[in-house]
Write a sequence for this structure.
C-alpha cells in the first residue's frame, strides 16, 4: 500500500489523473473501474483536459462503474449513469459500447448483478479501480458489515450514506435506499486500486482504513490486503494519520 499525500485537492486530482493517463498510454485498452461522487470530479476534469490538450485517447478503454441506485432511470439527474455522462463520458472519446454501469432499472436485479460480474471477466478483468471512501468507511456501496468477500449485489444504504447523499436530492426521502454495488471481493480482484480521499470530513475514515485493523466494519480497510493499492490523499484527508505517511 502506497500512501501519497498532496497539498490540495487540485494537486491530488492532477496527480491521480496523471497516474491513470500513464496506465492508458502503456495499455490503450485499459479496463478502468470508475466511481461517482464529489471526490473524482477534479480527477475527471483533469482527464478531460488531458484528452483535449494532450491527445489522451480513451477510444480503446473499457469502463466499469462501481455502483448505481436501484429505481432511478438513466435519465434521472442523480442516476450515476447521468453523472458519468455529464462529468466524463460525453467529453472524451470513449466507445459507448465499452461503458458498463449497473442497470438499476433492470427487471431482475440478481440477474443484472450476475451479468455485470460476467462482463468484467469477459473484458479481461479490471486493470485500475478508482475508489472513493464514505465517511463511514464504505467503498462503493459496501456499507459497514459487508462481507469482505462479497460480489456484485443489492445493498441497502446505511442511514449515514442516505444523509450524506441527501445533498444531491431535494429531501432525504428522495434518496433511493438500495443500490447495485460491486462487491468487496470484486473490487479486490482489480490489478491496481486507487483510493482517493479529500477533505477533513474523510480524515477519520482514512485513518481507520489504513491505520486500523482490517474489519468488515470499515470496508475500505480491506485495501491493506491488496497487492497494488495506492491511497491518494490531500493534506486534510491525511490530517489524522499518525504513522509514517507524512511525505
Ligand atoms: C460512488 C461510490 C461511493 C463514494 C463515496 C464517497 O460511486 O462508490 O462509495 O465513493 O460515498 O463519496 P464522495 O466522493 O461524494 O464523498
Amino acid at each position: 500500500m502506497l500512501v501519497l499525500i498532496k497539498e490540495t485537492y487540485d494537486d491530488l486530482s492532477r496527480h491521480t489523473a496523471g497516474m491513470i493517463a500513464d496506465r492508458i498510454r502503456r495499455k490503450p485498452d485499459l479496463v478502468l473501474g470508475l466511481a461517482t461522487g464529489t471526490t473524482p470530479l477534479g480527477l475527471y476534469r483533469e482527464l478531460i483536459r488531458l484528452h483535449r490538450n494532450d491527445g489522451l485517447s480513451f477510444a480503446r478503454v473499457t469502463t466499469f462503474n462501481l455502483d448505481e441506485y436501484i429505481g432511478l432511470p438513466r435519465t434521472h439527474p442523480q442516476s450515476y449513469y447521468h453523472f458519468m455522462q455529464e462529468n466524463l463520458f460525453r467529453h472524451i472519446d470513449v466507445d459507448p459500447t465499452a461503458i458498463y454501469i449497473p442497470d438499476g432499472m433492470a427487471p431482475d436485479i440478481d440477474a443484472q448483478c450476475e451479468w455485470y460480474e460476467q462482463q468484467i471477466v469477459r473484458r479481461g478483468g479490471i486493470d485500475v479501480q478508482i475508489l472513493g471512501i464514505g465517511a463511514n468507511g464504505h467503498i462503493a456501496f459496501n456499507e459497514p458489515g459487508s462481507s469482505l468477500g462479497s460480489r456484485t449485489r443489492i445493498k441497502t444504504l446505511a442511514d449515514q450514506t442516505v444523509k450524506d447523499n441527501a445533498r444531491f436530492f431535494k429531501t432525504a426521502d428522495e434518496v433511493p435506499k438500495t443500490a447495485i454495488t460491486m462487491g468487496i471481493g470484486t473490487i479486490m480482484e482489480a490489478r491496481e486500486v486507487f483510493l482517493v480521499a479529500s477533505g477533513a470530513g474523510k480524515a477519520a475514515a482514512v485513518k481507520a482504513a489504513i491505520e486500523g485493523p482490517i474489519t468488515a466494519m470499515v470496508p475500505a480497510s480491506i485495501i491493506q490486503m491488496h497487492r497494488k493499492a495506492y491511497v491518494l490523499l490531500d493534506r486534510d484527508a491525511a490530517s489524522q494519520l499518525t504513522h509514517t505517511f507524512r511525505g
